[in-house]
Amino acid sequence: MSAAPRLAEIARRLGQLRPDWSNPERYFENRSELERDMRRLAKQLEREHG
Fold first, then answer.
1. 35 neighbors 28 (Cβ within 8 angstroms)
2. Which of 38, 18, 42, 21 is nearest to 30 (CA)?
3. Is the separation of the CB atoms in 1 and 22 below 8 Å?
4. In percent, how much of the chain has pLDDT > 90?
5. How many CB atoms lie within 10 A of CB 34?
6. CA 49, CA 39: separation in Å to the nearest integer?
7. pLDDT by residue (tens digit) across 14-28?
8. Mean pLDDT score, 4-10
9. Where are the alpha helices (DSSP H) in the chain?
């Protein structure tokens, strides 16, 4: 998947990020997953575009 659709997907997931009162830890897990995905995409773009 190219960078633009991946970035759009990350933005969609970020927009849906909400606390889960039945499992508060899930919010932090999802936030960390989004952070990892964004860092991975940033590294890919850095390699591709210098």
1. no
2. 18
3. no
4. 92
5. 15
6. 15
7. 999 999 999 999 999
8. 95
9. 3-16, 24-49
What is the distance between the alpha carbons of residues 5 and 22, in angstroms, rounded to a whole number?
A: 31
Residue 44 structure tokens: 């890919």
What token pair was written down for 2? 């190219």
Q: Which of 6, 28, 7 is nearest to 17 (CA)?
A: 28
Count other Cβ atoms within 10 Å, centred on residue 13.
13
Amino acid at 1: M
Distance (Å, whole) CA 3 – CA 47: 12
* Inter-residue contact 40 to 5 (CB < 8 Å): no
Mean pLDDT of the chain: 95
